[in-house]
Specification:
This protein is an alpha/beta fold. The protein has helices at residues 11-15, 25-38, 52-64, 78-87, 104-110, 115-130, 148-160, 177-190, 210-219, 241-250, 265-276, 297-305, 333-342, 349-365, 371-383, 425-437, 481-493, and strands at 3-4, 6-9, 42-46, 69-73, 94-101, 135-141, 165-170, 198-203, 224-227, 256-257, 388-396, 404-411, 414-421, 442-449, 459-467, 470-478. The chain folds into three domains: 3-276, Alpha-Beta Barrel (TIM Barrel); 293-382, no CATH class; 386-493, Alpha-isopropylmalate synthase LeuA, regulatory domain (Double Stranded RNA Binding Domain). It has an eight-stranded parallel beta barrel with strand order 2-3-4-5-6-7-8-9, surrounded by seven helices. The protein has a three-stranded antiparallel β-sheet with strand order 11-12-13. A three-stranded antiparallel β-sheet has the order 14-15-16. Helix 7 (148-160) crosses helix 8. The structure holds 3-methyl-2-oxobutanoic acid and zinc ion. The site of zinc ion (ZN) has 6 residues, from loops.
Length: 497
């Protein structure tokens, strides 16, 4: 039987504490709704006493999101708890998350107190919070650096006082995975009432071990994980939701699962990144732009032979449907064949060889060859030499000038040049072309598609013309949109000349 691991998302609390990542209430509701659709069990919506804005966000999220538990953070201070309870009054399932520092550093240098007094405050906070809501989570701040014997004493006492979840944060991201795992095991073995509460992990990433520590925590008995989308959070961040979820999904022998709809991971990651203006590093596990991108020829060949050769996760499982084969100058014929196959083209071996040479020329000039580039290359390869070719195009246009174009076409080996004016550079060019071709054609449709990716990408033009009752289509793509337009027009005309 598989056991469930509860996902407690703190993107809107620990994540939102990051400088520059602050969200307004409307944006927080948008993220909270996305987290609900993603399937998180608990949303930590804020720290209500910290500001009126945070208070308001917890109120509004409690009203807008009904499925997950909504949690508000407090210190072990009565006023904090009262304010959190007030902010959570509309929540369908409210939780108060209260706690205090338990490490030597925190007790002596932050709280100027003693272990006994801290134990008393911890118990009192849980008992006080229990007067307002049933579901109380207690955090032992800096548990990672807290002596295990004292930690066990505190945890036993707060569970006795009514804590339903006990959070063991590695606040400073200091522990090694084996130490953190051993800490959770110690609590399992030494806290008499530990089975009356769920153990939670809350790991920070100061030494890059947040996910590893969370995993050893789970392996040793924790059944709730505190995580953030994209791993954002204080300093080096928190454990990232997507990493833990996909580890549990991929490593089936652990016999553990979450209720996360993994297909929504990428969408949620992008939403959080955009709203928080916090880019995701390209090599970030699971959600980075390159996480499923194969660019070297050997890897591409391996993935094409069988995806599992170089991919341990099917990209579709996290909502990525795009091809993972990135075409660069290092790609081989197999990768090119694969990508044009995905676009629906089948070429003979000879044509593929020709195409490969043209592809390498483009790849040498561009970092990455995309689908649009491929369509143009395949189009040229498939259609062979044209009856009309655009040989040169010169255009003048702009404010206070009459748009004028001079066009040279080669028709069946012979060159013709004409100039014309128009109401714009494209109109002038088309008129010059028509003067040369001298056929009665009607332009039925002319579609320029905006460039959406980068400034070095191609603009696409589709043209539809009619001639003697028949319809002809032309297409071209070029980084120069006027050239692309004339090429597309000529492409259509070439079919009737
Ligand atoms: O890192 C930490 O210890 C925290 C607590 C407030 C849970 O964020
Ligand atoms: Zn934290």
């Amino acid at each position: 039987m598989k056991e469930k691991v509860y996902v407690f998302d703190t993107t809107l609390r620990d994540g939102e504490q990051v400088p520059g990542c602050q969200l307004n209430t409307i944006e927080k509701i948008e993220v909270a709704k996305a987290l609900e659709s993603l399937g998180v069990d608990i949303i930590e919506a804020g720290f209500p006493i910290s500001s009126p804005g945070d208070f308001n966000s917890v109120v509004e999220i409690s009203k807008a999101v009904r499925e997950p538990v909504i949690c508000g953070l407090t210190r072990a201070v009565e006023k904090d708890i009262e304010v959190a309870a007030d902010a959570l009054q509309y929540a369908e399932r409210p939780r108060i998350h209260t706690g205090i520092g338990t490490s030597y550093y925190h007790i002596i240098y932050k709280l100027n107190s003693t272990q006994d007094k801290i134990l008393e405050r911890a118990v009192a906070a849980v008992k006080y919070a229990k007067k307002f809501v049933e579901d109380i989570e207690f955090y032992a701040e800096d548990a990672g650096r807290t002596d295990n014997k004292y930690l066990a004493k505190v945890i036993q006492a707060v569970i006795k006082a009514g804590a339903t979840v006990v959070n063991i944060p590695d606040t400073t991201g200091y522990t090694l995975p084996e130490e953190f795992g051993a800490k959770i095991k110690y609590l399992k073995d030494h806290v008499e009432n530990i089975d009356d509460a769920i153990i939670s992990t809350h790991c920070h990433n100061d030494l890059g071990m947040a996910t590893a520590n969370t995993m050893t925590g789970i392996i040793n008995g924790a059944r709730q994980v505190e995580v953030t989308i994209n791993g954002i959070g204080e300093r080096a961040g928190n454990t990232s939701l997507e990493e833990v979820v996909m580890i549990l999904k991929s490593r089936k022998h652990l016999k553990l699962y979450t209720d996360i709809n993994s297909k929504r991971i990428l969408k949620t990651s992008r939403l959080v990144s955009n709203l928080m203006r916090m880019p995701v590093q390209p090599n970030k596990a699971i959600v980075g732009r390159n996480a499923f991108a194969h660019s070297s020829g050997i890897h591409q060949d391996g993935v094409i032979k069988r995806r599992e050769n170089y991919e341990i996760i099917d990209p579709r499982a996290v909502g990525i449907n795009e091809s993972s084969i990135v075409l660069t100058a290092r790609s081989g014929r197999a990768a090119l064949k694969h990508r044009i196959g995905l676009l629906g083209y089948k070429l003979s071996k000879d044509k593929l060889d020709n195409l490969y040479h043209e592809f390498l020329e483009v790849a040498d000039n561009k970092k990455e060859v995309n689908d649009e580039d491929l369509k143009v290359l395949v189009g040229k390869e498939k259609r062979g030499p044209r009856s009309i070719e655009l040989k040169s195009l010169q255009v003048t246009c702009g404010i206070n000038s009459i748009p004028t174009a001079t066009v040279t076409l080669e028709i069946q080996g012979e060159s013709f040049t004409e100039s014309a004016i128009g109401n714009g550079p494209i109109d002038a060019s088309f008129t010059a072309v028509k003067k040369i071709v001298n056929k009665k054609v009607r332009l039925e449709e002319f579609l320029i598609q905006a460039i959406t990716r980068g400034s070095n990408d191609l603009g696409k033009v589709h043209v539809q013309i009619t001639h003697r009752g028949s319809t002809y289509y032309g297409f071209s793509a070029n980084t120069d949109i006027i050239t692309a337009s004339v090429e597309a027009f000529v492409d259509a005309l070439a079919q009737i000349v």
